[in-house]
Amino acid sequence: MTAKPDKTALVRLYETMVRIRRFEEEVNLLFLSGNMPGTIHLYMGQEAIAAGVCAHLSRDDVTTSTHRPHGHAIAKGVTLRSLMAELFGKTTGCCKGYGGSMHVGDFSVGALPAIAIVGGGAPIAAGCALAFKYRREPRVAVCFLGDGATNEGVVHEALNMAAIWGLPVVYVIENNFYGASTPIRQVARVARLADRAPAYGMPGVTVDGNDVLAVHEAAGAAISRARAGKGPTMLECLTYRRCGHSRSDGNAYRDPAESEKWMARDPIELFRKKLLSTGAISEQEAEEVERRVKAEIADAIEFARKSPAPQPEDALRNVFCEGET
Prior knowledge:
Layout: H1 7-32, H2 47-54, E1 62-64, H3 70-76, H4 80-87, H5 121-134, E2 141-146, H6 153-164, E3 169-175, E4 178-179, E5 182-183, H7 197-200, E6 204-208, H8 212-227, E7 233-238, H9 256-263, H10 267-278, H11 283-306
């Protein structure tokens, strides 16, 4: 059974969630004002999942991410400076400006650059886990994927391989009920996506993805199980994005009553109230978290703005060309 987090760990969980939310809010404003290139898929509303899962991971463990990767990157330890610079397309970015929003990551902290291909991280995570097992390293791979990705063929193949080889990998399904605009109920005939897990031969667990302590407990058990050599787990976290699929999505397809219900269950507010009611954190401490995060983000923006932009010749760097010497 996963040990309950102490006060320090609780505050760290809360701060990680706040850091993700405030980062995303600021990034959204930068995009809407035309100060940032490209496009974005915001993680707002799903912070409890990244925070609760990554709290159990070390730098040596690895994560694979999706086209909605900022929250995973922050929770895994990618610095706000390098992340913000990447979104600005600067050379100081975590991927030196080559990746942009949908491909952020940093190998030095175990955050593999995100893969925008839906379901593309599933076999990569299995491959990493196979390497860990082969080398007898006590490391774990965690694959974050959305509900829509669970119907991709490559995901089924990866889950089957992970199960039959007993790999140290955890598949975290962030079920926000919509693959872009398609309701998951229209494309999956199971009550819970984790119900599919026994068919592969692995445990399947469904938790409230807006309750960071529920995520933390379930993820801790799954990661400990993987690290102990007992194989993979499918962890389904029920959640809801507080924005459209991407910045051009007006959310017209979602039932207003459904949205209202979920908006009232903001994971950060729920956790903040719990911490205050139990005395784990004071109003002053909560406000200090906000001030600290705000200063970090302001620093990251200034760093990104002042960082050098790539040069035209950089387009040919890191590219294999036949006949090159």
